[in-house]
Design a protein that fits this description.
The complex is a heterodimer. Chain A is mostly helical. Chain A has 22 helices and no strands. Chain A has one domain: Sodium/glucose cotransporter. Helices cover about 75% and strands about 0% of the residues of chain A. Chain A is globular, with a radius of gyration of 22 Å. Classes of the chains: A mainly alpha, B mainly alpha. Chains A and B meet through helix 6, helix 9, helix 10, helix 12 and helix 14 of A and helix 1, helix 2, helix 3, helix 4 and helix 5 of B.
Chain lengths: ~475, ~130
């Protein structure tokens, strides 16, 4: 009941915003009217997907304390994001009116190669990430309503997303993000308060793990049952890699003015920190309930978070609120990727190929429909394969990190970075990730971390090897103001 | 040149430490501290952050918070803290999240200087391409 009401409210908010979407400026950058609170909540909501609300508890139950390395960076990544990439993107938007990340990259570096590679990375990554979100939604829906087949749940989520996402673009996406962020924070705080009771009741986390035997004891080691290099790899990926996430970076192009940035880290960080309480709370509770044998009936690891409520005897209202948060988390990320993919397909790729994008909203909406259908196929394949959302989410995160983080972290601030270096870095990052994934499938986060390192190194080396060119005045000012 | 090089060298060294730790369980306990130091040094090195001494102070405090959080999370995991929650949870919440969040958000709000409207207008009027 609660998730259904929340879903209806989101669709209503999105459709209301769609009625106010009249121009490509509204559709692509929400009319460039975002203040700190709206932008911050939107970044936080779109950053956290089903990965956080569904994947976190399951991963913690499986690998122990090592899963915390994914969420530990949340204390400082908001400021890191604003300090490095965010303020430069906000200035590029203010100075040159960039509406997409590839446009901002073309403004900074000139030429078409870097723009084209960024568009390809964003389109491909958006389809995969969107597919994962739809699969997460289907899995959650079939858990709550076992009579609904995952296939039908998938189509229902797809329909709801298309209803407002296609019509309203980024304006609808941002407005629903605000509602979704509020639901996510409320659910996470409530879930943590409930889980604190499970954690503090005898035998407690440590006692339950000790009673479960020596095999379970390593769950509470600093890196859990992961290797130390995997733990560090996750931490590096989810701290530095944040700088390459287009669904977060794109919001900096929507700000009312660069001055809006001042309060943004506080808003993003607070919303994210509160939302992540669900990971710690339900993760710890899942470890206890699994160790005491109360969590045996989980059909799939990704259902752990929801199964914890059933095993722990949580009130139905809380379970419903968390289910609404799962829907919020999934849709807030999905609508951002739907629009990013649409913009890349309808505008950035054609322009990089020398074809003028067709004006108006219709081509972007059609591109959004194609992106959504491709993502639906990915979701179907994922559900059929039965992979873990957390690991697939890590792969998607890693792909964006390897492709875009070096260019966003260094390229927007260090004037020595050349267009050739940015293009080479993106190519090496994406190529290395794909190659390593083929050679060592499902080995996350190793391939993504190695690809990220190779991309950073390529950016620095190629920049130093290619001739320095004077920057146009406007670019130089956008990089120094 | 020095800043990006230093920023890349520090996490690379920390990564080497972690790779070594994979083969020696005892060293794994160094993990959280190595990570804290790597992140703080990365920030200090300036690749992603500070250019003024006051920001350096913030970065040093950040290192201290992360290290203390890591200490609480890793070293005292078997102890019960306030509200019955393990000290590890409080270490994570306080040392690794809340204090770094307050430090970094507050320092950004204080040190960030947005360009004034006149400077922005001048930039908008410049030649867009070279």
């Amino acid at each position: 009941m609660i998730p259904s009401l929340a879903l209806l409210a989101m669709v209503a908010v999105g459709l209301l915003a769609a009625r106010r979407t009249r121009s490509t400026e509204d559709y692509l950058v929400a009319g460039r009217r975002l203040g700190a609170v709206r932008a911050g909540l939107s970044v936080a909501a779109s950053a956290f997907s089903g990965f956080v609300f569904l994947g976190g508890a399951g991963l913690t139950a499986e690998v122990g304390a090592g899963s915390l390395f994914i969420i530990v960076p949340a204390g400082f990544t908001a400021a890191l994001l604003c300090r490095t990439a965010g303020r430069r993107l906000a200035l590029i938007a203010a100075v040159a009116g960039a509406r997409t990340l590839p446009e901002a990259i073309r403004f900074r570096f000139g030429g078409r190669a870097a723009e084209a590679l960024a568009a390809v990375a964003i389109l491909g990554g958006s389809i995969v990430y969107l597919g994962v979100q739809l699969a997460a939604l289907a899995r959650a829906a079939s858990f709550f309503q076992p009579q609904i087949a995952p296939g039908w749940a998938l189509l229902l989520g797809f329909g709801a997303l298309m209803a407002y996402g296609l019509a309203g673009g980024m304006l609808a996406s941002v407005n629903t993000d605000v509602l979704q962020a509020v639901i996510m924070v409320a659910a996470a705080v409530a879930a943590f308060a409930w889980a604190a009771g499970v954690l503090s009741a005898p035998p407690g986390l440590v006692g339950a793990v000790a009673d479960a035997g020596p095999g379970a004891a390593s769950l509470l080691d600093p890196v859990g049952v992961l290797g130390a290099s995997t733990g560090f790899g996750l931490l590096l990926l989810f701290s530095v890699g944040t700088l390459g996430q287009p669904h977060m970076l794109h919001k900096f192009l929507m700000l009312r003015s660069p001055a809006t940035l001042r309060l943004l880290p506080a808003v993003i960080g607070t919303a994210q920190g509160l939302s992540l309480l669900v990971w710690i709370g339900l993760g710890g509770a899942a470890v206890i309930l699994a160790a005491t044998g109360a969590l045996d009936a989980v059909r799939h690891t990704d259902e752990t978070a929801l199964a914890v409520f059933a095993a722990g005897g949580a009130p139905a209202v809380l379970t419903g609120l968390v289910a609404a948060a799962v829907v919020s988390a999934v849709l807030s990320t999905a609508d951002a990727f739907l629009n990013l993919g649409a913009a890349a397909l309808a505008r950035d790729l054609p322009r990089a190929l020398g074809i003028a994008p067709r004006p108006g909203l219709r081509p972007v909406r059609l591109a959004g429909l194609l992106t959504g259908v491709a993502a639906l196929a990915v979701a179907g394949a994922h559900l059929a394969g039965g992979g873990l959302i957390a690991w697939l989410g890590t792969l998607g995160f890693g792909a964006f990190a390897a492709a875009l983080a070096p260019t966003m972290a260094l390229g927007l601030s260090w004037k020595r970075v050349t267009g050739a270096a940015a293009a080479a870095s993106m190519g090496v990052g994406l190529g290395a990730l794909l190659l390593l994934e083929v050679l060592r499938p499902n080995a996350a986060p190793g391939p993504a971390v190695l690809a990220l390192g190779a991309a950073f190194l390529t950016l620095v080396v190629v920049s130093l090897l290619t001739p320095r060119r004077p920057l146009p005045d406007q670019v130089r000012l956008a990089m120094t103001l | 040149m020095l800043r990006p090089a230093a920023g890349l060298a520090v996490p690379a060294a920390a990564a080497a430490l972690f790779l070594a730790a994979d083969h020696a369980a005892a060293v794994a306990w160094i993990g959280p501290f190595g990570v804290a130091a790597a992140l703080g040094a990365m920030w200090l090195a300036g690749t992603f952050g500070c250019r003024r001494w006051r920001e350096g102070v913030v970065a040093a405090l950040l290192v201290a918070c992360l290290a203390m959080g890591g200490l609480a999370a890793a070293g005292r995991i078997d102890a019960a803290g306030p509200l019955g929650l393990p000290v590890a949870v409080w270490g994570l919440l306080g040392g690794v999240w809340i204090l770094p969040l307050v430090l970094t958000s507050a320092s950004f709000a204080v040190f960030f200087r947005p360009p004034d409207a006149a400077a922005l207008k001048r930039a908008q009027e410049r030649e867009p391409t070279g």
